[in-house]
Amino acid sequence: MTLAIALVGATGRMGRLVADVVEGMDGYEIGLGLHAGDDLARVAEADLVVDLTLPQVSPRVAQAAVEARRPLLVGTSGWSRDRVSALRATLPPDAPGILIVPNFSVGAVLGGVFAEQAARWFDSIEIVEAHHEAKADSPSGTAVATAERMNAARAELGPVSAPHTDQRARGQQVGSIPVHSLRLAGVLARQEVLLGGQGELLTIRTETTSPVAYAPGIRIALQALPRIAGVVVGLERLLLPPAD
User: Fold this and answer.
1) How confident is the model at residue 130 (pLDDT cuts 50, 70, 90)?
2) Number of domains in the chain
3) d(CA 199, CA 220)
4) Which of 132, 135, 164, 180 is catalytic?
5) How far is CA 136 from CA 26, 70, 164, in A?
6) How high does pLDDT run on average in the chain?
7) At 17, which CATH number?
8) Residue 244 falls inside a structural domain
9) Which among 123, 113, 76, 79 is positioned nearest to 191, based on CA atoms?
10) Is there a catalytic annotation at residue 180?
11) For residue 115, is it within any domain?
């Protein structure tokens, strides 16, 4: 059996990459390509839906997928913890599964896991992320997800030490963690999590130098999508065994 995919955002950078990945997969095909301005109800013509649009469009794609009762893979940035919570609250009990993947890079995902583990041991934490000049949103979805996970890991410890955050140059706070965004030609995707302690600095740095790095994560997400129940956030939920 071949599963047809409704690819929303088909002509974008990531949309073209997903189409290339699907072409090399057995059991999957691109059934139709849609743009943000198209009739999103057409996702019902396919078996699965993949959203690679813009943060302001993505919730409409999610709504269309839920109404069509089609499993949804979201690769669009902008799904903060609050937005995900709102989505969960509105889903009917028998809704199809939704998998939200802020980053398809295995290395970037593992970097976020390591940062979450380290956050319990440092009180001074900041994030610097850099992406290509065409990226529409900032901070990146990966940086937001990383900061949210570190904040949650530190819930019993309280906010990090981040002085002078009233100054614009100190970045945007996600929880209590400052995030600094760069948009530069010559960069694809890079993130540094800096954790400072007495007499030491731990830097967790991940960099994607070519879009081919996303292909394994895309395949993993697509293969898992038909089995997803509820709303699942993060490729790490598929890569790593659950904690005991």
Assistant:
1) very high
2) 2
3) 41
4) 135
5) 33, 27, 27
6) 94
7) 3.40.50.720
8) no
9) 113
10) no
11) yes
